[in-house]
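ARCHIVE CARD
Drawer: 12
Card no.: 0347
Subject: one protein chain, sequence and derived structure
Cross-reference: see card 0346
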Amino acid sequence: MRKSFLRPMALALAVFAFSGCGIIDMVYLPPAEDTAQEIFEAGNDAMREKDYVGAVAYYNKLRDAYPFSPYTIEAELALADAYYLDGEYELAVESYKDFESLHPRHEAVPYVLFQTGNALMNQFRSVDRATTILEEACEYYNRLIQTYPGSPYVAQAQENVALCRKRMAEHELYIADVFWHMGNYGPAWRRYEFIVREFPDVPETADHAREKSVAAYHHYRQQQAEATRERREGSWKQWFKWL
């Protein structure tokens, strides 16, 4: 009789103990970490919702928590895209460059070269700014064109090179015109000649620079003649003063 009573009691205690452990786990133990796949999919969901800041957070979390996961490589590229789509072009350039450096043989490298050029080009704001960033963009576009001629991005890359070259020529023309309006015809003439020589592929700007070059040179020669005459007159005046 006593044994039959103890058995249900032992079973009840065992059930309580196991359920108690579950309660303790729920209350005191940390929740299970998300898997690499779950974090990656969360980042992709954020991208679809155009929550680029959230996507960046997820992709960075994946890189930090699972650096050797196969999802991490995709996340590294998606991170660069998130920066790009959010207009954070400097961070996008850095991330695209990092991806190419880490995975130089990856099938996405042509796309990465194209996007690096785009992110660089999009940072150029005004004709009065330096064009170094456009020159670098052209370097990436040309690498794509020369190294991956069969890439679907080549045609657009060629158009972007032409656009970058046009903006570079316009920048040089802007500087030449500044010299012109300041009456510094010598520097203006040299800058116009530089445009004619270096940007024949931008015919509208080059033709305009050629016309302005002729006029600038004429004014420059007049300035030189006037300066020479003034020096001579100054010399004669000084000579008569000594007499």
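Annotation on reverse: Residues 203-242 form the longest helix (40 residues). The mean pLDDT is 87.
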